[in-house]
Structure formats: structure tokens, C-alpha cells
Amino acid sequence: MNILIVGFGKVGKIRYEILKKKNFIKKIFIYDPFINNEIKKGMVLDNLNNLELLNIKAVFISVPTFLAAKYTKFFLSLNIHVFCEKPPATKINDLKIIKKILKKKKNINLMYGFNHRHHNSVKKILDIIKKNKYGKVLWVRSRYGKPIDNNYLKGWRGNKKKSGGGILFDQGIHVLDLIILLLGKIIKVKSILNNNFIKKNIEDNAFIILENKKKQTASIHSTLTQWRHLFAIEIFFERGFAVLNGLKTPSGKYGQEVLSYCKNSKKPPEIKWLKINKEKYNVDKSFENETNIFLKSLKNKKKILSCNINDALYLMEIVNKIYKENKMLN
Ligand SMILES: NC(=O)c1ccc[n+]([C@@H]2O[C@H](COP(=O)([O-])OP(=O)(O)OC[C@H]3O[C@@H](n4cnc5c(N)ncnc54)[C@H](O)[C@@H]3O)[C@@H](O)[C@H]2O)c1
Fold first, then answer.
1. Do 185 and 127 reside in the same domain of the chain?
2. Most CB atoms closer than 10 Å: which of 184, 271, 286, 291?
3. Rounded to two decimals, what is the model's pTM?
């Protein structure tokens, strides 16, 4: 099959490195009007005219967020399968339109890039929950953040029209996605966003509390003013815990990814911990895992069931509630 990558920045290049190793992919075309000429990996296109001549089966969209929905609609209209990086759009209405278009395209797939779901450590946590090893999840606490840098503020991420939001929308969205995955439908959302430090119209900090119907509760602190990189998610169950500290990412800045999990062998409030399991994940397989899911669905002609338009829409609904509560809606 032939593939097109639209947007050849940081993530476009990550996808390219994964795709070029697949022997069933014949040609990889790249479209990015702003890349330097020296980057002549793959086959760089000057425009997107006459795509039907290139026999492109699927496109990977990795552009600034304000362009994501426009390209998604365009490629779906050409019956090209789409993999689009998060966030799915700057405005929820665009996603609703995409859902309508997709309804008419029974054989076309659309998947969104929420790579954090596909870290092997996160898959292990999901497995613990699925096998009901420690009983019901009681609560989840998460922290994700980094220091501000000038590239962030001066680039498209610092421009609300282009990014759609601040650190919550750009990075916190990953933990929000994980929490929805862990807890399911969210009934209550409370939040405080602020921009005290950067003094721009995007949030530099987001404090969010979420709860589902079963009163399982989660908190998120997503921040740009932490002065160091940090990722942590803690899940406490009736009879145990799973704590993930650090995350292997392309930047390599979030520390060693270590999952600790342990069972309380007594009935609470009595506590007798069994041996703590500690698993280190030295390689980030998340981008590859999710790319493989997408490609496999194309090969097997199967519809994508997760990270699809419904997941993206639900996530955007929660994000919108948060922005509305803080009068920061687009
Ligand atoms: N899953 C993750 O962990 C993760 C990490 C980083 C970024 N992302 C997402 O990936 C996407 C891209 O982010 P990035 O960090 O690679 O950004 P980037 O700025 O490094 O790359 C964006 C690229 O898009 C190109 N571009 C701009 N306008 C274009 C146009 N009209 N047509 C085609 N290309 C155009 C730019 O030239 C640039 O090369 C964003 O949606 C971002 O949120 C996801």
C-alpha cells in the first residue's frame, strides 16, 4: 500500500520512521509546504492535486491542530483512510461534521493518535483492571507537566487560534483520555484553569476533578510551570494499587518509566502488602503499537473500535465542559 504523511514535523517524522520499516508499504509520500529541501526522505509532494494518480490508501495527519479537521475532511472525501494526531480538532462542531461524513463512508477508517493508551505500562494497568485483580478502582490521581520554553510560546502551540488551547489541550488531553479509558463515562467535571504565569489566552495550569456514575473519582494536574518534566498516574483499588512514574517519550525527558503494582492480601482496613512488583519499560513502543493497530485494521478491512471518532467526540465534550466552566471556550 502507499501512504501519505501530511505535516513532517516532530511527529510526522516519528510516523515515517515506523512506516518505512513495513515491507508491505510500497511508497511513502510526504506533504509539508514548510520543510527544508534537504529533507528529501520519502517522496515529497509540492501540492495535493491529482492524488488519485498516486494510489494512496491512508494518510497520517500531523499538523498544527487548527488544520487537523480540514485535512481529515479532505482525505475522507477522497476515500483515503485517516490517522490524525490528537487533539482531533480545535472545535467540536468540526468533529460532528466529520462524524456525519464518516457515516457515509462504511469502508473507510478514521483513527486518532492517543499514543499514551498504547504504552506497554498502560496496557498492563488496563490488564490489571480487566482481570479484576485488585477489586474496583477507587480513585485515580495524575500529574503531567513540563517547563515552558520559548518554542512553545512563540510557535503554533502558544497561539490559541492555531492550537485550540493551552497545556491541558496539548498535553493534559492524554491523561484525560487515559482517565476516560479507566473510568468510562464521566458524570461530574469540576475544574480550575489559569494563565497566571504566561498571561496569554491559553491555560498554563489545569486542575480537574472527574467522577463517573459509580463515584470513582480522578484528578488531573496539567501544567506548564513545573520547571521540570514529570508524568505520574496512580490508581488505587479496593485491594491494591498500580502506580506509573515517568514515561518513555521521544524527548526522553520524563524519566524512567516504572510501573509498581501490589496487592493487599488482607481485607481493608487491615493491610498486608504482598511483594511490590516493579516493572521498568525501557523502550517507548506506544507510537509503533498504535500505528500497527491502524495498519492492521486496513489490511483486515476492519472498522477501528477505539481511538475512533466516538472516542474523540466524547473527549472533546469533556474538554469543552472544562473550557466553558472557565470561560475559555473557543
Ligand atoms: N502523541 C503525542 O505524544 C504527540 C506529541 C507531539 C505532538 N503531537 C501532535 O502531533 C501534531 C503535530 O505536532 P508536532 O509536534 O509534530 O508539530 P511540529 O510543529 O513539529 O510539526 C507540524 C508540521 O506541520 C507542518 N505544517 C504546517 N502547516 C501545514 C500545512 N498547511 N500543510 C501541511 N503541513 C503543514 C509544519 O511545517 C510542521 O513541519 C499535533 O497535533 C500535536 O498535538 C502528538
1. yes
2. 286
3. 0.96
